[in-house]
Structure formats: C-alpha cells, structure tokens
Amino acid sequence: EIVMTQSPATLSVSPGERATLSCRASQSISGNLAWYQQKPGQAPRLLIYGSSTRATGIPARFSGSGSGTEFSLTISSLQSEDFAVYYCQQYNKWPLTFGGGTKVEIK
Amino acid sequence: EVQLVESGGGLVQPGGSLRLSCAASGFTFSSCEMSWVRQAPGKGLEWVSHISSSGTTIYYADSVKGRFTISRDNAENSLYLQMNSLRADDTAVYYCARPLYSGGYQIFNYWGQGALVTVSP
Question: What is the pLDDT of residue B115?
Fold first, then answer.
C-alpha cells in the first residue's frame, strides 16, 4: 500500500500569514492527490484534487502543487476559518490512503 | 442537492455485529461508485471499502477484509456496510462518501454527516 506522510503534524501560524503543508507518497502517484480540510465535528471538505485543481467554491488563497512523490498545499493568507486539520489522499492505486493530517492552529 | 445520510451506528460489544446504512439523494445513485471512510476518535481518516455503481467491483482495506461487507440497493438509493466480528479498534465515525465524478478517480467531494460506532464491553 502507498503510505502518505504529512508534515508537520502541527503548524502554528498567525492570521494573515502564509502556511505551507507537505505531503509525501511512498511511491509515485503521478498527480493523483487530493487535499481535504476538516473542522471539529464536521465531515471533511474537498479543497484540491489533481494536485492543483481547486474544488468548486474553494477560495483562491488555497493552492496545491507537486507530482510524483512530493506535494504541498499553500494557504497564502490565513483567515480565521482556515484553522483546521488538513489531510492529503492518494487515489492513484488501491487501497486509497490518507496522510495522518496537519493541524493548522492559531499562533 | 446531493445528500448522504448515514444511520445505524451505536454501541456494540466486541465480537458483535452492526449494519450501517447510507441514504442517498439529489443524484443518480445507480450511476455512482461509493465508499465508506472512517475516523477513529482523535485520529485521521481511513478508507474502508468501495463499491462500483453496479455492485460488481468491491474493494476493502486489509483491516476490515473478511469481517465487513459493503453492498448497495440501487432501487432504494442506499449503501450499506455490514460489520461483523467487531473489535475495539473499529470504534470510529463512519462516513459514506461519493466521488466528484461518476466512474472517475476516487476524489471524495460529497460526504455524509457520519455515524458513530462504538465497540466496547
């Protein structure tokens, strides 16, 4: 199975600052990577798929990049509603696998 | 509007069984692959099982293979997860999830609200 590793586990950022989250795959997944945001008590929300395509309704401050085994999610200027846990997911091969998550917290 | 509503969660003893349901609406259910994804308390997301639109192709995570069975009733617009031989580490919120595009990559754009399954004596 493809192991997805996210770093850091926790990211402390001040509102208005830039945040960069990383996700590494244990083998190449081409560009078949999605990012999700999850807030407490809520279901995950799709942010990015195809490594860099924003889902419908996702603000432009969210951007994704990468291919092969190295990926990143950047939030250009953190808003209060962006403090949450973020997960990456590969859909290149079964079984589908998620990263362990990065919690973005207020500094 | 796409809606996915899970039901059937609850408290069950180790070794017991439970059946989750997911009622789908707002889209052509019979054309869509579906999955179950779970999340243990305070932990990350774990994909559990997938079923094709016709029900002929099914995948399971190794952690549930041989114990869980996914199924669907396209006439009833419903997805199911039969969980047998439950263990404490099956305790989680179980989400049903639908991909962004039918017949495409498993990118989950639609999620239910989740059903909590607690396995405890």
Answer: 98
